[in-house]
Design goal:
The protein has helices at 32-44, 96-100, 131-147; strands at 2-6, 17-18, 52-56, 60-61, 67-68, 71-74, 88-93, 106-112, 115-124, 127-130. By secondary structure, the chain is an alpha+beta fold. Strand 9 (115-124) and strand 10 (127-130) form a beta hairpin.
Length: 149
């Protein structure tokens, strides 16, 4: 799984682990796949022709009010990536087997505005993948597990 660490100065989710991605723009014509491929190219330099789109997961609502449409794609190594230094501090990979192993998923709770809110976390080395990114990975694990793939 290709993940990024967002730069510390961004307005939304600074410094957090995320997938390449972003908001739909007019040029995407409402197509979430086109948006995902465009954003991936802009953020990490992976051209759309290098990605085989496998499908999409159900929309994921974040606790901060965003609706994320996860697009799942595959590519072949080695990758020659060029990071956008404004948005991406680092890029790294986590083995799919590790992500899909439910033993690596941990559910936590956090107090926000007097309300207890659950969130998923996956520890990978020195990094903590949590919140929406971990939730989407847990969802992927559930989908693939349910399909027996």
């Amino acid at each position: 799984m290709l993940l990024t660490q967002r730069t510390a100065h961004l307005a939304h989710h600074p410094g957090q682990i995320s997938f390449p991605g972003g908001r739909l723009e007019d040029r995407d014509q409402g197509d979430s796949v086109a948006c995902a491929l465009r954003e991936t190219e802009e953020e990490v330099g992976l051209s759309p022709g290098e990605v085989t789109v496998l499908g999409r997961l159900g929309d994921y609502a974040t606790g901060t009010g965003f609706i994320v449409t996860p697009i799942v794609g595959a590519t072949s190594a080695p990758l020659a990536l060029t990071l956008d230094p404004f948005e991406v501090a680092d890029v790294f990979e986590v083995p799919l087997d590790f992500v899909l192993d439910t033993a690596n998923h941990s559910l936590h709770r956090r107090e926000v505005d007097g309300r207890s809110r659950p969130y998923w976390a996956i520890a990978w080395g020195e990094r903590l993948i949590w919140g929406a990114t971990a939730g989407i990975l847990v969802n992927l694990s559930e989908v693939l597990g349910r399909d027996g793939q």
